[in-house]
Design goal:
With 213 residues, this protein is an alpha+beta fold. The chain has helices spanning 4-11, 15-23, 27-31, 44-48, 52-60, 62-70, 80-83, 118-125, 130-134, 166-186, 197-202, 204-210; strands at 37-42, 73-75, 88-90, 96-100, 137-138, 141-150, 153-158.
Length: 213
Amino acid sequence: MANIFETARAEHAYNKYVRGLESVAGLIETLSGPGPFTIFVPTDAAFDRLSDDQQANLFADPGKLARVLKYHIVPGYYTADDLLDRLFLKTLEGQRLRVWSDVSEIPLGEEEIATGGDALSYISSDTVTTSVRESIKINGGHVLQANVIADNGIMHVIDKVLVPQFTMLLKHVAQRSFRVTRLCLSLEYDPERTGGCSDFSKSERGRERCSRP
């Protein structure tokens, strides 16, 4: 049996994700190791939902590409049935993926549960049906094909490119920094109005304005 990278490459359906793995130093070696690993592999169609500019920017930035690819890789071996008992999975990138399914919707701790169906059957009697398995989502992305087995791990094919929070966090921090800097630079020295920017920033009002966006 092939390792998890060779298995993904042999499918010829995840070419963009595989091309990304091949372009990031050390990732193929990692995925060729003993593992085990669980990979959530986006289809080429999932990448195509990104704009041309987004795809070009992603593949042109080795650091960002490495973090996005690693965000799809989880150390450990998790079948679809295992995922039903998980809320979060810590990725190779360092951040966590959120796992959701129909099972997550069942209210528990009530005196009487009127809800029926496959999800409740799983909770009460450990019965896993196809509909419950197909309801699994990873960060909102649907699992299209589960449990593709390799000799050092397992793959689940998904319909979404998973993007870690670092891009949005960095953007938010940069925006905050810009707004605060612009505010403080706009407070030019004016003794008659504020007693100078330094005096203004030391006042209660100044601290409030300079510490928030």
